[in-house]
Amino acid sequence: MRHHLPYARAGQVVGLLGGSFDPSHEGHVHITEIALKRFALDRVWWLVSPGNPLKAEGPAPMARRLDHARRLMVHPRVEVTDLEARIGTRYTAATLSAIRDLYPGVTFVWLMGADNLAQFHLWQGWRGIMMTTPVGVIARPGPRGAAIHSVAARTFSAARLPGRASRLLGRLDPPCWCYIDVPMSDASSTAIRARGDWSRV
What we know:
This protein has 9 helices and 7 strands; from the N terminus they run E-H-E-H-E-H-H-E-H-H-E-H-H-E-E-H. By secondary structure, it is an alpha/beta fold. A 7-stranded parallel β-sheet has the order 3-2-1-4-5-7-6, sandwiched between helices. Strand 1 (13-19), helix 1 and strand 2 (43-48) form a beta-alpha-beta unit.
């Protein structure tokens, strides 16, 4: 199975950006390029998920989302992958556990937009994710307070790394998370679908 999975070697720090990417857009590219630099990542993998358990409606077919993402995100240190479908996991906590077993010696950093941090406490196993995986949070358009004062942020307030030290994120033992303010893109998959620029069929 390993030859179907993305490559990483022991000692590397790999950022994981998960989501349905339904569709992927310039905002995803923007935060990926920023994360590579600000968190000093060796690589970033886009984990195109089979489906979001928090959403009632399913996404466009996996092959279509993968193809679109791979045409959009062209970078020598970024790989678009259907790893979750290949290893048979649906929830982030299970995905991270499986990935750590598959890649001994590799440090993984979970990447998310601030909008996801605001509702992170709804994710299955969210405390376990924070306890085992460094988390990099990138600012998104909208009020900052919802993320900074979220249940997850307050619960793990002592583990927050200052933005000015963001490059250390993947070199510290979890729990450790870092919020970075960055120039923002207001692109959104929801808005793209609402305009009729992307259909799920």
